[in-house]
Amino acid sequence: MAAFNLDPFMRTQQERVETLLRESAERWGPAGTPPKLAESMRYSLLAGGKRLRPVLCLAFADAVTKSSTDTAAVRDAACALEYVHTYSLVHDDLPSMDNDDLRRGVPTNHKVYGEPLALLAGDGLLTEAFSLLASGPEPVRGTLCAELARASGAAGMVGGQALDIAADRAATLDYLLRLHRLKTGALILAACRMGVLAAGGDAAALASAVAYGEAVGLAFQIADDVLDVTSSAEAMGKPVGADAEAGRFTFPAVVGLDESRRMAAELVARAEAAVRPLEGADGPLAALARYSVERKS
Amino acid sequence: MAAFNLDPFMRTQQERVETLLRESAERWGPAGTPPKLAESMRYSLLAGGKRLRPVLCLAFADAVTKSSTDTAAVRDAACALEYVHTYSLVHDDLPSMDNDDLRRGVPTNHKVYGEPLALLAGDGLLTEAFSLLASGPEPVRGTLCAELARASGAAGMVGGQALDIAADRAATLDYLLRLHRLKTGALILAACRMGVLAAGGDAAALASAVAYGEAVGLAFQIADDVLDVTSSAEAMGKPVGADAEAGRFTFPAVVGLDESRRMAAELVARAEAAVRPLEGADGPLAALARYSVERKS
Predict the structure, then answer these.
(1) What is the pLDDT of residues A100-116, one digit of tens each?
(2) Buried b / exposed e across A34-44, counting CB within 10 Å, b at 16+?
(3) Which of A55, A291, B40, B154 has a CB 3.0–4.6 Å from the CB of B113, allowing a cystine?
(4) Domain ranges of chain A
């Protein structure tokens, strides 16, 4: 059996997401939103990226409906997830946090618009995510707001960021797992759940989304850490493991590179198994699970 | 006829709000929310304040139901409004914004917890506002999320803050009115609307809330500006009007102190008239409208 061809699928889905994001950002017109604020929000939202969260959301919705004709609720869910992801990057890049000058190859929001407007652009993107979801149809709009808020709030993404800034080199694997389950895992899981819920999926589909989303969320983060180690090994000519010696708080630093890779592979297998009832033996969701660890950036 | 006695009413309502806020903050337990983040969120949320937005929300709900037995939807609406107000203060106080060291007589959030955690506490409070509303009963939870998101997003409070940081001394009265309609007016209006909607009020009650909320939102801000001028005149011994000469962008600076007071009084009269069908000749809402301009801080 030929394996699902991921590359053209990803390109098509990423273009689908770009179109949805551009259209949704037209809500921020000059009659309601100060133009400079809208420009700053659009700058970061439309700066590209993998669009993994909306792609997962759309893929689950498509798997549930057996079509790629998305409804307003599905489109809004996909966009709201990327609004929240983008706001978290804008705030993360601020001087008081990671103090990054570049993001996705272009200057960070505060480098272009200044810190005050970057802070507000982040606040705006977060709030507009809920505005978008809440403007959708009953009864799903309340459900989607609840899902997104839980995943991105104090017991989700924001909580994970708080664990991250408090992490030290003595932290344990348990701490690392909890940190990433909250910081990146919660929103990736929500992307899967929201795709099913927005598309009206049943309890079995939701259970697939939960098992898949938990596995892929963690696998994605482990792969990020592995990529960081191996690409610095190649690019910077320093031995693999230098990050671990420097006490950087990553999976390779805590459990080693081989164990990190083994964990990621096991999680991908678990994710593939979870969506087999939903899409058969080798569909886009299984391919996306592999992509989450095999990607080059 | 004896005028409604506002002082004991405000004390009672503020205590009612403090109890609701303390109870709602118990959601951020250590199993879900990192304790230091929860502490930082509680620090600012429970630091006191006038609680005008939740008090307005509860007063409208009480006027609609003719009782003070609030429902879960009303309680959540009142708390969510104060979460959003508090998050806006925490972010406003950050060094890159107003760089304030004190708020309500105690050190600002970032002075106690550092900038990164203060930023996250603000993000957390905003997100938890939607989490709280979205956890409520159908069908009103979607409506309340939509109201709060619209009022606090890019075409509401965040938009007003963006106009504020871009304002210069050449700005017009029209600019000032739009700035404050968004920056403070939108959330005060939402407080009134959400009280009616959470309590199941009819279209007439909602119309009262809109006319009242628009008037009180603006009157409150004009009073703030007037208070700033007059209390500095008394406290600092400098002549009234020094702020205007310094180019501070306030109502007294743009239209003068007398005209500012006249505008505020006219707005209060309009608000009183708007709620007469709902509560009769002299009820708590009329008293709250007067309070919004007659308060001492």
Answers:
(1) 999 988 999 999 999 99
(2) bebbbebbbbb
(3) B40
(4) 6-294
- In this predicted structure, the answer to whether residue B236 has a pLDDT above a threshold of 90 is no
CA angle B165, A99, A118 (to 5 degrees): 25
Radius of gyration of chain A from its Cα atoms, rounded to whole angstroms: 19
* CATH fold label, B6-294: Farnesyl Diphosphate Synthase (1.10.600)
Q: Which of A146, A149, A162 sits opposite B37 (nearest CB)?
A: A162
Of the candidates A36, A138, A139, the beta carbon closest to that of B166 is on: A36
Length of chain B: 297
Give me B153's structure tokens. 């997003």
Q: Does A126 touch chain B (CB under 8 A)?
A: yes
Question: How many DSSP H helices and E strands does chain A contain?
Answer: 15, 2
Q: How far is A5 from chain B (nearest CA, A)?
A: 38
Q: So what's the ipTM on this one? A: 0.94
